[in-house]
């Protein structure tokens, strides 16, 4: 008998869609898998006001209407890019705008298109205080950018140098520790008394840092935060399948053209949107915890953000298929996670 998983339609609580022709290429993959997605604001230039977020959202909806048929779709929920110059008035606008959920904090220089990020957290404390007052979430890319700090230690250092102080001084600030990668991050979330949650990606559950060097240098496995040692992957896995409602699905699917990955200074980002949900299903299946996938994928994130549960359902069947080696991406190509490899689950058309 076929093995199937039926679950409430899931949410992707951390997604990069880019813009224009590139967005049009990747948007259908996420729309097929997820009912809602929280969209990251690190465009060029970044999305820094509610007015800009509303316009970006409309571009997403327009692209969806052109690319999708039938009932398939994606409800985009927006975020604002926090900068040293963000006006505190934007906090109230976010609180009053249902389709904009919070602010994204990038330490300046931490990752793709983060040059406009916050240079010192102290510069945005008045805004953070107002966010706490209005229960507006702060979505955090949790790495320090000090060059002397080992790249594998930057998340743990961020906890010690930033998050501990932040949660002590603003104890009611709602925080999402995005795409966590370490045992230290798992423990911080579990032990914190602050209203803090964390997203976990498919690729950080699937791969450890050996994947960067398997048979040679693998640039399509390079992401930020970078893949970590196996003990950290195991800690993430234990958190994801535990049923703890503070951990939920966020793919951090980040498309980059192959030509931008295969260069002297390649971009950081893994494109998982094509089969992210199938990868999560396999991870939970191998852990013997398939019954907890629905909570992780469809309930915990919605609960944290105060969203109603999705009413539709999806079905996954254990049915192997080969992931394409590459996909169209504007005038270039994009290489997806598991390119040319076997994926063990298939999302059935609804």
Protein model, in words:
This protein is α/β, with parallel strands linked by helices and 350 residues long. 34% of the residues lie in helices and 18% in strands. The chain has eleven helices and 13 strands. The strands form three sheets. Strands 2-3-4-5-6-7-8-9 form an eight-stranded parallel β-sheet, sandwiched between helices. Strands 1-10-13 form a three-stranded antiparallel β-sheet. Helix 5 (154-169) links the parallel strand 6 (138-140) and strand 7. Helix 1 packs across helix 2. The mean pLDDT is 95.
Structural class: alpha/beta
Biggest beta-sheet profile: 8 strands, parallel
Which residue ranges are poorly predicted, with pLDDT under 50 across at least 5 consecutive positions?
none
Helical stretch tally: 11
User: Rg from C-alpha positions?
Assistant: 19 Å
Number of strands: 13
- End-to-end Cα distance, whole Å, is 20 Å
Note the topology:
Layout: E1 4-8, E2 11-15, H1 20-33, E3 36-39, H2 50-67, E4 75-81, H3 89-95, E5 100-105, H4 125-134, E6 138-140, H5 154-169, E7 175-177, H6 183-191, E8 196-200, H7 202-206, H8 230-240, E9 247-249, H9 258-261, H10 276-286, H11 293-305, E10 313-322, E11 327-329, E12 332-334, E13 342-347
Parallel strand pairs: 2-3, 3-4, 4-5, 5-6, 6-7, 7-8, 8-9
Antiparallel strand pairs: 1-10, 10-13, 11-12
Helix pairs in contact: 1-2
């Amino acid at each position: 008998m076929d093995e199937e998983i039926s679950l409430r339609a899931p949410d992707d609580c951390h997604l990069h869609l880019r813009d224009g022709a590139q967005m049009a290429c990747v948007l259908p993959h996420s729309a097929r898998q997820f009912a809602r997605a929280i969209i990251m604001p690190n465009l060029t230039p970044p999305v820094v006001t509610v007015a800009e977020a509303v316009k970006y959202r409309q571009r997403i909806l327009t692209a969806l209407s052109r690319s999708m048929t039938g009932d398939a779709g994606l409800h985009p929920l927006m975020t604002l890019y926090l900068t040293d110059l963000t006006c505190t008035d934007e906090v109230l606008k976010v609180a009053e705008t249902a389709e904009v959920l919070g602010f994204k904090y990038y330490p300046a220089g931490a990752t793709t298109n983060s040059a406009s990020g916050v240079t010192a957290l102290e510069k945005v404390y008045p805004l953070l205080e107002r966010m706490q007052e209005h229960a507006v979430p702060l979505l955090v890319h949790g790495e320090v950018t000090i060059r002397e700090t080992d790249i594998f230690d930057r998340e743990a250092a961020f906890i010690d140098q930033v998050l501990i102080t932040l949660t002590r001084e603003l104890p009611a600030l709602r925080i999402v520790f995005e795409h966590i990668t370490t045992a230290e991050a798992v423990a911080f979330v579990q032990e914190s008394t602050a209203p803090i949650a964390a997203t976990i990606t498919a690729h950080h559950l699937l791969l450890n840092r050996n994947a960067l060097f398997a048979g040679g240098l693998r640039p399509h496995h390079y992401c930020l935060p970078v893949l970590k040692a196996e003990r950290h992957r195991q800690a993430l896995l234990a958190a994801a399948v535990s049923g703890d409602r503070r951990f939920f699905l966020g793919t951090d699917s980040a498309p980059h053209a192959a030509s931008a990955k295969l260069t002297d200074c390649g971009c950081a980002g893994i494109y998982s949107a094509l089969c992210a949900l199938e990868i999560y299903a396999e991870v939970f299946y191998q852990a013997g915890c398939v019954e907890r996938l629905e909570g992780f994928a469809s309930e915990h994130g919605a609960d944290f953000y105060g969203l109603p549960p999705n009413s539709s359902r999806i079905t996954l069947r254990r049915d192997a298929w080969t992931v394409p080696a590459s996909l169209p991406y504007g005038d270039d190509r994009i290489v997806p996670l598991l390119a040319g490899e076997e994926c063990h689950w298939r999302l059935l058309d609804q």
